[in-house]
Amino acid sequence: MEIGWPSKVRHIAHVTFDRFNGFIGLPVEFEPQVPRRPPSASTRVFGVSTESMQLSFDSRGNCVPTILLMMQRRLYSQGGLQSEGIFRINPENGQEEYLREQLNNGLIPDNIDVHCLAGLIKAWFRELPIGILDCLSVEQVMQAQSENECSHLVSLLPPTEAALLDWAINLMADVAELEELNKMSARNIAMVFAPNMTQMSDPLTALMYAVQVMNFLKTLIVRILREREDSVVQI
């Protein structure tokens, strides 16, 4: 039996899905069968896979969660990059929990503490179900000593993890560029990010591995900073 082209087709309704409001434009007769709100997992932005999150492109063409870009823009606009100890100083727990709740609703309150924003950016990476570097073996990261070896490791990452790492490295480079103000060198910012990039159950192994990850991140940050300087000189 051959299947022919559809006939008597009518456009009844245009339905879109919004991660915060569920299905929009759904005909009334279907509403009882479909939840008005999306599943709870899709409304969370921490501790969930990027596959269930709303994504956007950054200035470098990386497809990353929109919530990261929102936090980054607010961090920059409030002078977070100039703040001493940014990404190192821990925020007050009370404000962090409040901001988490607001972020799950797609909001960032005005005048939020920049250290709270920075802390939650790190927390977002730390709470991923799988760390963005976990697809690389410990041996691969430990053996990568030179810039070329570190760059080769980046090329082995899947597209999602590669985009997230590139976004994070450029964020860290933005911080390191203002070291004179924020006291956060390439090594310092790599040190505070390193424990958030992998998931290891054994604390001692995680601590030892974090040192290798720190060196890996630092090498990539230094490369970005040099490339930025070279591009300015060429102009």
Automatic annotation (TrEMBL):
Name the SMART domains on file. PBD (SM00285), RhoGAP (SM00324)
InterPro entries the record matches: CRIB_dom, CRIB_dom_sf, Rho_GTPase_activation_prot, RhoGAP_dom, RopGAP1-5
Alphabetized SUPFAM superfamilies for the sequence: GTPase activation domain, GAP
Could you say which residues form the signal peptide? none
**What sequence ranges are listed for the domain Rho-GAP?**
48-233
Tell me the keywords, alphabetical order. Answer: GTPase activation
Question: Could you tell me what this protein is called?
Answer: Rho-GAP domain-containing protein
Species per Swiss-Prot/TrEMBL record:
Penstemon davidsonii
**Top-level taxonomy:** Eukaryota, Viridiplantae, Streptophyta, Embryophyta, Tracheophyta
